[in-house]
Design goal:
Length: about 220
């Protein structure tokens, strides 16, 4: 039985009720908030395992809620929104969203995204090393192995891969990756990032031209699978 608790922040009572029914039928515990302020208060007083966040809230933008959450909340936040324009999606991912689904969405897909986000979050919290397919990463020893053979990486390559692995399944934007690995001032250096990603692929992938781990999300960034 799932023991995960999910907070829904959405101003539409019908949507909250539908989500609650589907989540509780899959053994999740559900709490609800109808405004951004209420969601922030609930998440601060009793942090849930995952948050489903709507962008179009009545009192404040969901982007602002996400920005405030990410000052202290490090668990998954999945955006649910009718806004499907690229700028809104990229903005949410830049601000630390784990995933983004546009309304209307299929219940099965949402549940799959939730399971993946919770599994990745649990792995990161409980383990000093993570295995993703044929790749094993030890965060204490700072080593990376493929089929038990160590892959030699530079410090920057290691930091880039660690960011990917710790966010496995999540789309990371170019700007977010550049800020996290290289710092402020490098957020427009997408060509710089492309070079390092290509180098990592050559060292990790069986076929760098058809990667199975570091997947390009066209126009947005990369996803580690």
């Amino acid at each position: 039985m799932n023991k995960a608790e999910i907070l829904i922040i959405d101003d539409e009572p019908q949507i909250r009720k539908l989500l609650q029914i589907n989540l509780e039928s899959n053994d999740y515990k559900v709490i609800q908030a109808g405004t951004g302020k209420e969601g922030l208060m609930l998440s601060a007083s009793h942090p849930p395992d995952l948050i489903l966040l709507d962008i179009g809230l009545p009192d404040m933008s969901g982007h602002k809620v996400l920005e405030q959450l990410r000052q202290w909340y490090n668990k998954p936040v999945i955006i649910l929104s009718v806004q499907d324009d690229e700028s809104s999606i990229v903005s949410a991912l830049d601000n630390g969203a784990t995933d983004y689904l546009t309304k209307p969405f299929r219940t099965g897909e949402l549940l799959a995204r939730i399971r993946l986000a919770l599994r990745n979050s649990q792995n990161i919290q409980n383990h000093s090393s993570i295995v993703c397919g044929d790749i094993e990463m030890d965060f204490i020893a700072r080593t990376v192995k493929k089929h038990d053979n160590e892959i030699k990486l530079t410090s920057t390559e290691y930091n880039l891969l660690a960011l990917f692995v710790k966010n496995a399944g999540r789309v990371l934007t170019h700007q977010y990756i550049l800020k996290e690995v290289w710092g402020y001032g490098y957020q427009s250096e997408t060509q710089y990032l492309r070079v390092f990603v290509n180098t990592l692929r050559k060292k990790m992938e069986e076929n760098p031209n058809n990667p199975v781990h570091i997947i390009t999300e066209s126009g947005v960034g990369y996803r580690f699978r």
